Amino acid sequence: MRTLLNLLWALLGGGLVTAIEYVLAGLVLCLTIVGIPFGVQCFKLAGLALFPFGKDFNDARPRGVTNLAFNVIWLVLAGIWICITHLTLALGLAVSIIGIPFAIQHVKLAMLALMPFGVEVREVR
Predict the structure, then answer these.
(1) Within 1-125, where are the H helices?
(2) pTM over 0.90, yes/no
(3) Rounded distance between C-alpha atoms, residue 67 and residue 107, angstroms
């Protein structure tokens, strides 16, 4: 069931498009040394955006001054806009009963897009 949902998500739920956007942004960010940590987070978000069903992330906020500083920079420059995009897509998908599982995944991605540093994505069994 997880595989079917991931395939439908990639084709109909916006997963393929958002994953490509995250990968492109990550590649651009990795062109500079300062942008590499942010590019790595884009790649993490791309992996979750492509196949979100069966994956989860820890809810505890990350500790550490470095993670906090990077999360604040991320939030101000990109996180708010990415979150708004995912929430808009979630609202559009939640209109139909079939789109509700996809809307839930967009809300999950919106939460992660706000502060991705220090958060670990893991497989759910």
Answers:
(1) 2-12, 15-29, 36-50, 65-74, 80-93, 100-114
(2) no
(3) 22
How many degrees, rounded to 5, is the angle at CA 30 between CA 25 and CA 36? 110
CA distances from 47 to 26, 69, 88, 98 (A): 12, 24, 20, 23
> Max Cα separation, the chain?
45
List the end-to-end C-alpha distance of the chain, in Å, as a whole number: 13
Distance CA 65, CA 95 (A): 41
Question: What is the spatial distance between Cα 20 and Cα 48, in angstroms, rounded to a whole number?
Answer: 12
Identify any residues that bridge with 125 across adjacent strands, giving them in sequence order. none
Q: Tell me how far apart the alpha carbons of residues 77 and 82 are, in angstroms, rounded to a whole number.
A: 10
Q: What is the 3-state secondary structure (H, E, C) of 6-37?
A: HHHHHHHCCHHHHHHHHHHHHHHHCCCCCCHH
Tell me 64's DSSP state: S
pLDDT tens digits along 12-53? 878 888 889 889 999 999 999 999 999 998 898 898 888 888
